[in-house]
Structure formats: C-alpha cells, structure tokens
C-alpha cells in the first residue's frame, strides 16, 4: 500500500480514492484484504534471506492473517490523515475475490515471524507523518532541512 502519499502529491481538493465494488457478500459490502505495515514486510524478507541457502529458498505467505474491508481501510485513511478524502464507488472488477488474506502459519513456524504492527490506524498515521516530512521521498526531511 502506498496510498498515503496521494493526498499530498495531488491537490487535496482534487484527490479522489476509487473503491471498486460495494456489493460483495461481506459485512461492509467491500472486499476484504490483508493490509501489512511496510516494516513488517521488510522484517519478513530479512528473516527469509537469513535462512536462505544456495539452491534452497523458502516461499512464504507474508501478512497479518487478518482481513479488513476496503471500507475500513478508507475510514482509517481519513482519520489518520485528517484529510476529507473523497471516494468514488465504482462497479467491481470482473474476477475480484471478495476476501483475500494471508495464512502466515508457515512463516511463523519456520522463521518465527509474525506481523508486529497490526494496528492499521497507527501504521497509517506513522506513514502519513513520514510522508508529510519527506515530500520528495528519501533525503533530508523537512524538519531537518528547515532547521
């Protein structure tokens, strides 16, 4: 997910988040996905690389193992950013599954890895704070550049 920079990179008044499908057979009507914090994703890759040997590389499902609705994600983004994000609800795409989330059992058992940063709201707030202080990506943050 790199949605967080969108409200900053585009004019906030023109930014519109597109949600495809509100007629899924889920509680919220939107599809369910497994949102993972980038820090957890990096940690899982590091653990997998540490265990990898020439000719023997593991294949793992990396995620929280918990699905969240796209509607829940959108509301969390609005709260985390404080931006009144406009949402266009569009027809669903053909072939999209109602629910897709990981089963991290294998990576937990083989690499002793589990997602640590599972609070969606907190992850989005941290990402938003970082994005606001790094408008041009990596390099000096605005806080350092202006001091």
UniProtKB/TrEMBL annotation:
- Please state every residue range assigned to the domain named NAD(P)-binding: 30-118
Superkingdom in the source lineage: Eukaryota
List, alphabetically, the InterPro entries matched: NAD(P)-bd_dom, NAD(P)-bd_dom_sf
Q: Which family does it belong to?
A: Belongs to the NAD(P)-dependent epimerase/dehydratase family.
From the Swiss-Prot or TrEMBL record, give the protein name: NAD(P)-binding domain-containing protein
Please tell me the species this chain comes from: Solanum commersonii
């Amino acid at each position: 997910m790199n949605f967080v920079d969108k409200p900053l990179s585009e004019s906030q008044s023109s930014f519109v988040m597109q949600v495809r499908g509100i007629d899924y057979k889920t509680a919220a009507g939107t599809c369910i996905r497994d949102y993972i914090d980038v820090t957890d994703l990096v940690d899982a890759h590091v653990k997998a690389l540490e265990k990898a040997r020439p000719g023997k590389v593991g294949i793992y499902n990396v995620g929280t193992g918990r699905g969240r609705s796209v509607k829940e994600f959108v509301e969390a983004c609005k709260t985390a950013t404080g931006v009144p994000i406009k949402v266009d609800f569009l027809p669903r795409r053909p072939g999209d599954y109602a629910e897709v989330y990981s089963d991290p059992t294998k990576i937990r058992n083989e690499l002793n890895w589990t997602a640590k940063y599972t609070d969606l709201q907190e992850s989005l707030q941290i990402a938003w704070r970082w994005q606001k202080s790094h408008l041009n990506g990596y390099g000096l943050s605005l806080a350092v550049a202006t001091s």
